[in-house]
Design brief:
The chain is of the alpha/beta class. The chain is about 35% helix and about 15% strand. It is built from 6 helices and 7 strands; from the N terminus they run βαβαβαβαβββαα. Helix 4 links the parallel strand 4 and strand 5. The protein is globular and about 45 Å long.
Length: about 210
């Protein structure tokens, strides 16, 4: 369920493009035009926001959700923007500019109660080691992490598939193809030293949170 990447930016890109490319390929195999909608908050890190914006070039509909005056996600407006074609929603756990703590578990539950097949991703890079994160079995499907935000080395991050079905059924289409590393989800020889550094930093961060 842990897919190591070159950092948080790649993890966020993969979290968005992986499911959407899978949906596009599935539709094109049926010789259908993909009908896909993707939403994220308007205060996401550029690694998420620009990635979502880039999807419009492929004919994918995108929505950007505003903040409340308190710097929180407006869940009512979020639910209003959702559609039967919404395939993915991305909301960060902690905002890196405002410091807002977003209740992503609540947002994910409300989204899935309306559209159960929508994938929920959260950029948890700023949150790791400071606040509680979703665990396996959560309604949050994917979370992104980065080592250098917790005192680890630069150049290593991870996308964690809390929803095991995403990896068991290969519902994520790789961005980087190669020799089958990371269970075929991310090609390229792993950097064992950086991964070990990430591991050490994670243990230390969680121990002294």
């Amino acid at each position: 369920q842990v897919i190591f990447t070159s950092g948080g930016t790649e993890a966020n890109n993969f979290a968005i493009y992986g499911p959407i490319l899978f949906e596009m390929a599935k539709a094109l195999q049926k010789k259908e035009m993909p009908k896909i909608h993707v939403a994220c908050s308007d205060f996401e890190h550029p690694a998420v926001k620009k990635t979502v914006e880039s999807l419009s070039a492929f004919g994918i509909q995108t929505s950007f959700l505003p903040l409340t005056q308190e710097g929180q996600l407006d869940e009512e407006k979020l639910l209003e923007r959702l559609q039967p074609e919404t395939r993915l929603v991305s909301i960060m756990r902690v905002n890196n500019i405002l410091g807002s703590l977003i209740d992503i578990e609540s947002a994910a539950k409300k989204i899935k109660s309306k559209y159960p097949n929508t994938i929920f991703h959260s950029d948890c890079i700023q949150a790791f080691g400071t606040v509680d994160l979703p665990k396996s079995g959560s309604t949050v499907d994917l979370i992104s992490l980065s080592a250098h935000k917790i005192g680890g080395p630069k150049g290593i991050g991870a996308l964690i598939a809390l929803n095991k079905d995403l990896t068991r059924k290969y519902l994520l289409r790789p961005l980087i193809w190669g020799g089958g590393q990371e269970h075929g989800f991310r090609g390229g020889t792993q950097n064992a030293g950086l991964i070990a550094g990430f591991h050490e930093a994670a243990q230390n961060t969680l121990k002294h949170r």
